[in-house]
Amino acid sequence: MDFSAIEIWPLLAGLGLFLFGMYMLEEALKAMAGRSFKKFLRKHTNHPIKAVFSGTLVTAILQSSSMVSLLVMSFAGAGIIGLKNGIGMILGANLGTTMTGWIVSLVGFKLDIGSFILPFLAIGGLGIIFLKSERLSQISKFLMGFSFMFLGLDYMQNGFEVFAEHIDFSFFKGQSPILFVAIGLVLSAAIQSSSAAMMIFLSSLSAGLITVEQGFYLVIGGDLGTTVTAIIGTINANSIRKKVGWSQFTFNAFNGIIAILFLPFYFYLIFDLIQIKDPLIGLVTFHSFFNLTGILLLLPFLNRFTQLIDKLVSTKENKKAKNLMLANPEESHAAIEALHMESITFLKKAIHVNQLYFYLEKESKENVNAAYFYLKEYETEIVSFHIQLQQHPLNAEEVNTINHLIASVRNATLSTKDLKDVKHNIDELKSSVADNLYGFYKKIRKNQDKFNKELSLLLENIDTIGFPDIEQLNDFQKELHEEEIESLYELLKRQGELEINSSTLFNLTREINNSNESMIRSMTYLINKQ
User: Using CA atoms, how far apart are residues 361 and 358, in angstroms rounded to an integer?
Assistant: First the structure.
């Protein structure tokens, strides 16, 4: 056994290229599909059978069951699709992900990939650089992703052939099948891609490193390992997302057990009855067959399976809207008071997030993006309560009150969104080596600190302030904005060309002003709740 002749880098480079190609492919498809893709999912998941077909089709196109699983979890968590139909899509995703194996076995091992892929690399690479159209640029990115996937396959194929020449794999003989299931599980979980794991299994089989039967067990383990992505997605998620995520693990475990029990039958069916001669085709046929079998066995009992998941997975929520947890929407007076208190708390959190954008929270290690998305989930809980409240009898005054409170919450969120859109510009100013630009950053940072402190002071005295106080805050904000514009004009007059485009700087000050105006509107709605 000559280990010195083995090169690990071609194998790792091949895996890296394959995964990067899949990433580019997914990003391009998501960008090209956009809203129409989401509308398709919503329209075609209103029945379990349609949901299975949709899950299969979307996964076959995107080449990633993990991404589809996370997407389904998001849709189900947001209430766009129901739990049962979400589980139906997960079942279909398992079948759709087998398409990668078919493409690799039918095309990848039959061509001179190095020569075949060159035109796609050329067109894709040049298109990304020179094509200005967004759609053509995304098509070019799609071609690059496709090219990198097959280029990675070529590296992997050659690398495994070297392995086969220099390593004695006879120690695999007589090993327990569970060992191969475990290897497949760990590999798929580690790279979080059953498609990439399948490519490795096929390359190993092609190079003669494993037998077809060992490949069967590896594939079973690989399907179970890919559920790790969905399980990770359940962390800190709401109960529906948790149920969808764990349903994939439960189904894949059930599917794997059935496949192991009936593996001799599958072997007979594929190689004796259908008489498939190519071991690579045999392996991907098995992958498709046992996933299809699992779907056919479970689909008639989908209602009961959904009920089982509903009972097994905890529904305990980590609620963000603490004031609304015990409020009863049927008791309008108490519910509105709880909504009022929650709106004040929400506004305080929004101010905190805005402070983070300018690094004004001392010794804070909180990630501003995480804080922003926490705020969005917080808003969703408040809006959900608002909708429940509207479903009960309310008089005109009560309707006016809750509408003003929800408008306050939405404007606070809009304020943080404006700053999120220009965060990269704020960071660019903060890290600028030009003293004048860094000085401008310190000015807007100082002004934001002043504005947020005045805003927080009013919020602490929300029961005693009135519209004159809001007008005073508005005038103060206008003075700060005018001061920043004057400083910017002075900066441009003295310096001329800057390392940051002048239009970018004007856009930054405008967005900061819009953010502050949204906060003022939020306060106005809050005190005008009656």
Answer: 8
